[in-house]
Amino acid sequence: NMLRVDVGPLGGWHLDVAAVINNSAVLITPTLACQCGFSMNTGQLGNTMIYASLQNCFAQNVDDMTFTTILNLRLYGSGKVEDELHQVVKTCHYTLWASREIVCDGSYMEASECRANSVTDPRRAKVPIDAGFRITTLVFFTPEERVMKVAEAQRSGYGIANTPTRLVLRSSKASPETYSQTVAGVPMTVLKTSIIFEKKWLVTRLDAAAACPALEGSVFFTENTISWFLPWHIDPLISSGHFQLLEVHMGVAGERLDPAEMAARQYSLTVNEMHVVVEIPVGAVGGHFKSRVQDNQYFSSYMIEPMVELLWVEDAMQEDTKYKVLLPITTPMWRQPPQVIDNTVPEERRFKVLLGHFGSDVFLANITFPGEVMSVADCNVRGFNVLEHVYPNGTSKFFTLEVPFTDRVVLQMSEVGLTTYSLHLTFGLLVLPEYAPFSHTAYLDAKLVDVAPPSISGSCDHQNFYILVKYGTPGFNFQTIVGKQMLTSSLAQQYNLMENGTHLSFAVPFSSPSVVFEVRSACNYDERLTRKLHLLCVFSELSLACNYFTTLTECFPNGTMTALAVKLEAVHSLNPSQLTLRDPTCGPSYSDDRYAYFVFTGNSCGTTRRFLANMMLYENEISLPDDLEMNLSHAPSRLKVSCYYDVNKTHAVAFHTRPRRSKPYADNAKGELQVKMRIASDKFYSMFHSLEDYPIAKFLLQPVYFEVELIGSTNPEVSLEMENCWATLDSDRMSLPRWNLIINGCPNPLDPHQVIFHPVLADDRVRYPSHFKRFEIQMFAFAEDKDNLSQQAFVHCDIVICDTRNPQGGPCNRLCSNQENGIKGMLSHFLVMETNVFKQS
Ligand SMILES: *[C@@H]1O[C@H](CO)[C@@H](O)[C@H](O)[C@H]1NC(C)=O
Ligand SMILES: *[C@@H]1O[C@H](CO)[C@@H](O)[C@H](O)[C@H]1NC(C)=O
Ligand SMILES: *[C@@H]1O[C@H](CO)[C@@H](O)[C@H](O)[C@H]1NC(C)=O
Ligand SMILES: *[C@@H]1O[C@H](CO)[C@@H](O)[C@H](O)[C@H]1NC(C)=O
Ligand SMILES: *[C@@H]1O[C@H](CO)[C@@H](O)[C@H](O)[C@H]1NC(C)=O
Ligand SMILES: *[C@@H]1O[C@H](CO)[C@@H](O)[C@H](O)[C@H]1NC(C)=O
Ligand SMILES: *[C@@H]1O[C@H](CO)[C@@H](O)[C@H](O)[C@H]1NC(C)=O
Ligand SMILES: *[C@@H]1O[C@H](CO)[C@@H](O)[C@H](O)[C@H]1NC(C)=O
C-alpha cells in the first residue's frame, strides 16, 4: 500500500518534489506531504527516498486496484548551472486490501477503511455506503467530541478521500485532534473519528481510527544496539474481545525482509507477551551513519528506518487489519574520537597507520606533515599508499597509509645502537555533503635497533682458503655460496664448518671444485698462478685470491718429470684431457675438467735437453694438438715444462736414448760423472774459451777446436768415445736444418770438410788421455743461412763411455763401421753435449 522512489545521491543539491495532477504540478510541502501521504528520507551518502501512499491525494485511482502517481523531481543548488528535471511515473496494482489498513509513517498516519464492509453499529445490519454518499462531517474524539465540516478538516491539514470502495483518512501525528495513550507501556498517538456520510435524506457513519507509536518511550539505545518495543494488541484499534494476531513481519526502508536476510543483517524480531521487539545493531546494513563536526570533534549517529507489519483479525466482525509502522530512528549523536592504530613493524622500515572509524560520509582530504600539506593524491605519488577501506557491512570506513622511514617527513634520532623514527601528522577530513572540515593529529614513534650487517673475511695458506663470517645484529639471515655451489650441510662438513654464537668459519681446500685458477701476469706463468675463491653471502661478496707458489712441474733425480696443467678460469672451453706433450701420443696420466697431470721422463715424449753452465735443462711443452687448437675460441696457449738438473749433484742413472739391447755388456753403474765439451782457443788445446765467451764468433772455414772430457773419473779402464756430433741452427738438438759432423764415431763421409780427430797425450792437465777426445771442424754455413751469416750454430754430440777392457765395436772400438754395439745409453745425463759457435763470414 506504499510506493517508493529512490533519488540520489544528491550531494549538496536540493530536491523539490511535485505531484502532477490534471496536467499541473503541485509542489509537495511538508504540510501537504502529511495531508496527502508523502514522506521523504535521506539515506546513506545523500540518497533520498520518497515514499508515497498508494492512495495519495494525487494518485490516479482506477477501481481501487491500479494507482498511478506522477512526480516531477527538480534538482538544484550550488554548482548546478541549470535545474535538473525528472519525471517519474509509477503505477502499482494492489488488490489484496484488508478491511482496514493503517499506515504509520514518520510524520503522518493513514487509515484506509473498506466502506462496503463497514458498519457503524454491530447491532444493525450492514449498510453499504455506495457512491451516492458524500462525506459531510467528521467527529473527532480527542477523547472529547469535536465536530468539523469536511472543508474545515481539509483546511486543518486532514486528508479525506472517498474512493470507489474505501474511505481514506490521513492526519499529521501532530494535529490537535490526536491524543496520546499509553498502550502496554508504550506511548501512542491516537486519532479516532466517526465520519458522517449523507445521501439525500440518508445519513450514515463510519468509524475510522489510527494509532501510531511515538518514538520516545518505544525506542531504547545502547552504544551498540537499538531496541524498539511495539505493542501488538493496540487497544485503541481493537473493539472486540476476539482478537487474533496472524502475522508479524519486519522490514527496512519500506521493504519487508525475509528471515534469512534479517539474520544476515543481524536484525532480530521477537514477539513477547505484550510487545513485538525489534533489535538492530548500530552500524548494521540498511542504515547509515550521519557524521557531524562540532568544535573540531567528530560525532556520529546511526539512522535506520525499520518497519513492522502486523496482521490481525477480530473474529466477531470478520474484519482483518493490516497495520504497518515505519519508524525512522536516529541514535543520539555520540562523540567518536577518531582512532589511530599504529600497525608499524619497525623492521619493515615504514610506518603503517590506520585511521578510523568513520561514517561513509567522511572523506580524507589531506595530510599535514611537518612543513608540508599533501593531498591524498600527493601522498600516493610519494608512495604513502593512502587507501580507504569500507567494512563489509558498508556503513563505516577507515583509512590506512604507509610512510617509509626514509621519507623526509619522518624525523630520525639516533642514540647508541638505537634509532627512533617519529612521524607527526594531522589528517584533514571532511564530512559530506556539508564539507564540514575537522582534523585529527597523531604522533607515532618507532624504534629500531641499528642493524649491523654480517662481515666476511678470509685468508689462505698453502692448502686452504679460510673464511670467517662475523655475524651482524640478530635477524640478519644469509646464505653462502662458495664458487657456484650453495653451502649445503654436506659441503659444510667437507669444509669443516664451525659455528659459535658470533662467528662462522670454514676452510675450502685448494682442491675444491669451487676454486678457480687465474693468471695475474702472463709473463711467468708458473710462478704467478693464482687460486681464486669466489664467495657470495647474500649481504656481501668476497673474492679471495691466493698466489699459488707450489711448483707445477716436479723434477725427480731419477729423470721423471711431472707437470700439472691447470685450466684457467679465462679458458672455459679447454678440455684438459685433450692436452698432450710435444709428442701427441703423450697425454695426461690423469685429468679432470680442471687439471691435466703429466708424468714422463727426460728421454720420452719429445723432451729436449740443453746444457747450461753446470746445469742441464730438460724441456717439453704442453699444448693442444693442432687440430683441436684450431677449434678453440681463445689464443693458442702452450705451457712450457722445464727441469733444471744441477750437473754436480745429479745422480747418474740409466737413461735410454734407444731401446736397451737384450744383452748388455756392462753392468749399470751409478756414479757422479760428468762430461764437458769446450772449444779451445788454440790448436794446441792449451787455452779454452770460458762460458762467458759463448757464442764465439768464427769466420767461415776457420778451424774450431773441440775437446770433450770425462771429469771426475780416476778409472783408466774407461774411455770416452764420440758417437754422433751434428750442427743445427737452433739450440734444439732435434731441430732442422741439421748437418752431421760425426756419425757413429766416424766423420760424416759426405762432409766436404770432414772432422779431424786429434790425438790426446798425457800432460799436466790430461792424466788419462782415454778420458779425452779432441776434434777440429772448419766453420761452415747452412745453405738456409747463406744470406745471413750472423746467426748462431749449435754443435751437439752424443758420447759413449766405454770399458776399454771389453770394447764391443761401434764407437767403442773406433772402427768407423756401421755396426752398432756397446754400452750406449749409459750415464744418460752426460751423453748429450752441446755447445754453440757463432759463424761469421
Ligand atoms: C482534476 O480534474 C477532475 C476532472 O477533470 C476534477 O474532478 C478534479 O477535481 C481535478 N483535480 C484537481 C486536484 O484539480
Ligand atoms: C560492521 O563491520 C565491522 C567490521 O567488519 C564490524 O566491526 C562491525 O561490528 C560491523 N557492524 C555491524 C553492525 O555488523
Ligand atoms: C586540509 O583539509 C582540511 C579539511 O579537513 C581543510 O580545512 C584544510 O584547508 C586543508 N588544507 C589544505 C592546505 O588544503
Ligand atoms: C667465536 O669464534 C670467533 C672466531 O673463531 C672468535 O673470535 C670468538 O671469540 C668466538 N666466540 C665465542 C663466544 O666463542
Ligand atoms: C722416479 O722417482 C719418483 C719420485 O721418487 C717416483 O715416483 C718414480 O716412480 C720414479 N720413477 C722411476 C722410473 O723409477
Ligand atoms: C673442429 O671443428 C670442425 C668444424 O667445426 C669440425 O669438423 C671438427 O670435427 C672439429 N675438430 C675437433 C677435434 O673437434
Ligand atoms: C761443479 O763442479 C765443478 C768442478 O768440480 C766446480 O768448478 C763448479 O763450481 C761446481 N758447480 C756448482 C754449481 O757447484
Ligand atoms: C739475421 O739473423 C739475425 C739473428 O737471427 C736476425 O736478428 C737478423 O734480423 C737477420 N737478418 C736478416 C737480414 O735476415
From TrEMBL:
Compartments it resides in: Cell membrane; Secreted
Keyword set includes Transcription regulation: no
Pfam family, one: Zona_pellucida
Keyword Lipid biosynthesis: no
Residues covered by the ZP domain: 554-819
Alphabetical UniProt keywords: Cell membrane, Disulfide bond, Glycoprotein, Membrane, Secreted
GO cellular component terms attached to this protein's record: extracellular region; plasma membrane
InterPro entries given in the database record: Ig-like_ZP (IPR058876), ZP-C (IPR055355), ZP-C_dom (IPR042235), ZP-N (IPR055356), ZP_chr (IPR048290), ZP_dom (IPR001507), ZP_dom_CS (IPR017977)
UniProt-listed PANTHER family: SI:DKEY-19B23.11-RELATED, ZONA PELLUCIDA PROTEIN
Protein name: ZP domain-containing protein
Species name: Mola mola
